[in-house]
Amino acid sequence: MEQIIKLEKISQYNELKEIETKHPLISVFDNSKTKALPNHSRLHFGFYAVFLKAGNCGELRYGRNSYDYDEGTLVFVAPGQVIEVNNEENYQPSGLALLFHPDLIKGTALGRHMSHYSFFSYESHEALHLSLKEQQIIKDLFGKLEYELSQSIDKHSKSIIANNIELLLNYCVRFYDRQFITRENINTDVLSKFENLLNTYFQSETLQDLGLPSVGYFADCLHLSPNYFGDLIKKETGKSAQEHMQLKLIDVAKERIFDTEKSISQIASELGFKYPQHFNRMFKKNTGFTPNEYRSLN
């Protein structure tokens, strides 16, 4: 039976790894010098974590496809997320780790923009795969944080630490952009499947059964987290997944409005709208005309 371990403080994680807590709100360490986490356990995180895995990380999957990178990966964990630990016998951890509590970055620029780093909500199979040069940049930033923690805490410590974490995360944004580009074939496959799923959704009874589609629905169909799916679509097309869905909805609505045997209220209901006025407002916002005006013009 899996053991559930709730980790609210950095010191609790450090105790599991048998390492010293140098700062109550942040920890940076080399995993190869620590104890393995309890096997067959589930860890509930109350803080952020960034793990740089060293060497071959085994088979990592993107949807139904395997990644071909094995130089090292970065995995991100946000407060409230749960990580399952199922290691082989005599497993020895490796790589680097950064843990930091939300309280550390309160009142800083990083704290105000933390929600922009959407990769903290990606699934583990959507990890960031680094080249050797990229790994070195990340290792250097880990080293700077580790150096700062070895110094006496003064009035500059918080801003320097927060700035270095922000720099690290900004590099990760750049590296993820590179990853989206280098995975062009896989991304094209996702786009094609998304388009087919959109067509099927609007042409079947699903629309009336489930109502208007959500980003989460299509992400789940494609075995991706909503954030990763949304970022991929935006990077590839310049439009958000929500915009794609709305454009498809407008196209279908325009076709159905031509059927004068149905009232606008009936069409709105068939398109998954609970209230016709919501359909009217959305249609006018996108076309400049109300459904009735559009019907008259055509």
Task: Give me some keywords for this one.
alpha+beta, elongated, 2 domains, 14% strand, 49% helix, Arc Repressor Mutant, subunit A, 298 residues, 10 strands, five-stranded antiparallel sheet, three-stranded mixed sheet, Jelly Rolls
End-to-end separation:
65 Å
* DSSP, total strands: 10
Number of helices: 12
Strand content: 5-15%
Order of strands, widest sheet: 2-9-4-7-10
State Rg.
Answer: 24 Å
Principal-axes geometry comes out as elongated
| Helical content (DSSP H or I, runs of 4+) | 40-55%
Task: Name the poorly predicted regions.
Answer: 56-70
Task: Please trace the helix and strand order, writing H or E for each element.
Answer: EHEEEEEEEEHEHHHHHHHHHH
Secondary-structure class: alpha+beta
Q: Average pLDDT value?
A: 87
* Major β-sheet profile: 5 strands, antiparallel
Q: The CATH topology of the largest domain, please?
A: Jelly Rolls
